[in-house]
Amino acid sequence: MTRKDYEERPQSGRNSSPAERVLFGSIGAGLIALSLGQRGQVGTLLATGGALLVAGAAMGQGLGETVTGVRRTEDDQIKVEKAITVGMGADELYTFWRNFENLPRFMDHLESVKVQDGDGQRSHWVAKAPAGTSVEWDAEITADEPGRRIAWRSLEGATVPNEGAVEFRPAPGDRGTEIHVSLTYRPPGGTLGATVARLLGEDPNVQIEHDLRRLKRLLEVGHIPTTEGQSSGRKGALKAEARMYDNRRTS
Amino acid sequence: MKAVVWQGVNRVSVETVPDPQILQPTDAIVRVTKTAICGSDLHLLDGYVPSMVHGDIVGHEFMGEVVEVGSEVRKVKVGDRVIVPFPIACGKCWYCQKGLTSLCDNSNPNPGLAEKFWGYSPAGLYGYSHITGGYAGGQAQFARTVYADANLFKVPDGLTDEQVLFLTDIFPTGFMGAENCQIEPGDVVAVFGAGPVGLFGIASAFLLGAERVIAIDRFPERLEMARTYGAETINYEEENVFELLKEMTGGRGPDSVMDAVGLEAQAHGLLGVADAVKQTTRVLESDRPHALRAAIMACRKGGTVSVPGVYGGLADKIPLGAFMNKGLTMKTGQTHVHRYLDRLTGYIQRGEIDPTRIITHRLTLDEAPHAYHIFKHKHDGCIKCVLDPWADPKDHEPTPAPQPQG
Ligand SMILES: [Zn+2]
Ligand SMILES: [Zn+2]
């Protein structure tokens, strides 16, 4: 992102006001206080939720953003920007990404990407949507600088009009390559739709962050670590408690 | 198989659970032949480490024999006798390549949770809550180990289980604690806490060239053990530690001070009570930093404070004024176990250190709840318990029933 982009980006409210932090912190403390009266897993959950809120307050995370996780551009689109450093060269990373059919390997919500015949500029994307449905669209490449940058945008008729870009920048020292991703999209129902989706666990911010981490692990290690299926002394309802903490299921 | 399972604050039990399986091609299954209880397991027992779940298998100091390997495991073979470092290294990321294995970028399957608490996620750890990955631990008859080629270390022939078991954690932890003291010839090192890590810290400080080491604790048997490692001792219940340290060092103060106590330090006076009260809420203060405060105050000007003790969250009233105005350096961290193994194995092979000396109790896995109890309350002169997951409980003397808390 250039300096100019940064200045133009609307205020996200990332840093909360002192009042908000106090409020936020006290919600956390309140949950903890409640948890003290509870035994078993309910207590643990409340306590952990409270601790997370307090930690958030300590780090100055805004209440609004933490609850909704949504950042809007001036024309009411949603913009997500995330970065990660991967210990590989920019050319290798570019090649992996440029083959869009690799994307569903680490983007959890993508079902498939098919590059269409011809000049390879067009592709067909299928994404999983809430409640077992799916969303499909066609996209075209709008910029392609080998080893440096790829940009794309959806074509007319997409349910969720979107555009995105990925940049590969050499990291200092022997740290590998920084991957910077930005996505802009207009969800059905505008911001409200996105807020609702976020509360249902479909937040694009978190998704992209997880996706990039999966990419890093896939490329650096060969697979993504898991505890799914490991042994434990858990029975029945307690499994849900473990799921609260784990991104993956633990049985 | 049998495993030690966390059942809530102050409750661990030995239960029959499913045997572990290979879940990923880089996994290996280890038949655990010796495992130990660590001081940091007590923070789990006491409920100060967030994100433990009922039914979690605990234990992060363990070793054994490889009985099964995944399809991508190359260096490790079935039948190898191995130790398992407690932090999990992927072996590939920048941190692992730099030897900073406890900071591995890739081995924690739950990095989001750690990032909420700490900003960034360190490595996954065995048997140490879901914030560090939720991996099942090794106080069990078998354990699933991950990234076997990067994490399992073959035990050299001629060394017993007990001689190498502590290479998984407390020996390298004490050693890194001493290394973080930045010892120079002639230095005097003070070590708060003469538990297992403190004792290895004392021995390591001498190995690294300290002229004198002063150990601070309140349990006579620990202080006695510290003296056998060559340390001078202070019982903090009987002496004014700050004054005595100053006097013992000609008014200069120790060149470096190690906090080998961590988040559940004992303290007297108003601050100690305030900490204890706040900490019971688990949120107003998650850590009781008394040893850290004392370490910062006692350290000489321009000296180094080394913190191998475990802290989890937020701590109150750290004397930052003293820290800044005296120009101190603080060095901390979970142990990068892997980077120390060759060197420390050498010390053991050459007889320069005998790690088995700190073992006071050898018990069966079935006796784990009792072992936790005597270790926590320092009953029966307990300094370090080693558990044998395969010993028949009938071979052992019956152990006395746990005494009431207190
Ligand atoms: Zn430990
Ligand atoms: Zn790593």
Outline the structure in words:
The complex is a heterodimer of chains A (251) and B (406). Chain A is built from eight helices and seven strands; from the N terminus they run H-H-H-H-E-H-E-E-E-E-E-E-H-H-H. The N terminus of chain A is likely disordered. Chain B is of the alpha/beta class. Chain B has two domains: 186 residues, Quinone Oxidoreductase, Chain A, domain 1; 163 residues, NAD(P)-binding Rossmann-like Domain (Rossmann fold), CATH 3.40.50.720. In chain B, strand 9, helix 8 and strand 10 form a beta-alpha-beta unit. Chains A and B meet through helix 2, helix 3, helix 7 and helix 8 of A and helix 3 of B. The site of one zinc ion has 6 residues of chain B, from loops. Chain B: InterPro entries: ADH-like_C, ADH-like_N, ADH_Zn_CS, GroES-like_sf, NAD(P)-bd_dom_sf. Chain B: Keywords: Metal-binding, Oxidoreductase, Zinc. Chain B: Its cofactor is Zn(2+). Chain B: Pfam families: ADH_N, ADH_zinc_N.
Q: What tags apply to this protein structure?
A:
heterodimer, A: 251 residues, alpha+beta, Alpha-D-Glucose-1,6-Bisphosphate, Chain A, domain 4, 7-stranded antiparallel sheet, disordered N terminus, B: 406 residues, alpha/beta, Quinone Oxidoreductase, Chain A, domain 1, Rossmann fold, 2 domains, 7-stranded mixed sheet, 6-stranded parallel sheet, globular, binds zinc ion, oxidoreductase (chain B), metal-binding (chain B)
Short structural summary:
The complex is a heterodimer of chains A (251) and B (406). Chain A is α+β, with helices and mostly antiparallel strands and 251 residues long. In chain A, 38% of the residues lie in helices and 23% in strands.
